[in-house]
Automatic annotation (TrEMBL):
Presence of keyword ATP-binding: yes
Gene name, Swiss-Prot/TrEMBL: ndk
Protein name per UniProt: Nucleoside diphosphate kinase
Active-site residues annotated for this sequence: 116 (pros-phosphohistidine intermediate)
UniProt subcellular location: Cytoplasm
Phylogenetic lineage: Archaea, Methanobacteriati, Methanobacteriota, Stenosarchaea group, Halobacteria
Organism this protein belongs to: Halosimplex litoreum
Amino acid sequence: HDERTFVMAKPDAVQRGLTGEIVTRLEERGLKLVGAKFMQIDQELAEQHYGEHEDKPFFDELVEFITSGPVMAMVWQGADATRQVRQMMGATDPADAAPGTIRGDYGLDLGQNIIHGSDHEDEGANEREIELFFDEDELVEYTRSD
Ligand code: CMP
């Protein structure tokens, strides 16, 4: 089914000049970019975004990293977009991510893993994350010819 999903090029992707590569991969796969924001995440937004990990031992590290530099927050649309993006990202730990996936090709470690995408096994996570980062009027509707 046609849906929207939230994707973020993390600070390590921006620092290493991989933002364009991420956009290109998702575009070439046929997903449609409907929102994008180059931004610095503040403490409050980071804690909200990663709220489900609040009790994890790596929570502080996670918040520190995601606020350490600019990110590119994006909304992509397409058939089963959430699951498609998860497949293209590869396993959370780049060491386990298959070659050909974004993390498998570029990720360094579990923290610096290049990209975030909404969890497809967490019902509604995509819409919750989109809402956290974007106002509805920042998302664009158009037809992609391909
Ligand atoms: P992400 O998809 O952004 O969602 C939560 C993030 O937590 C995950 O990617 C990893 O970057 C990070 N993460 C998960 N497990 C650990 C861990 N054990 N140590 C540090 N970071 C972790």
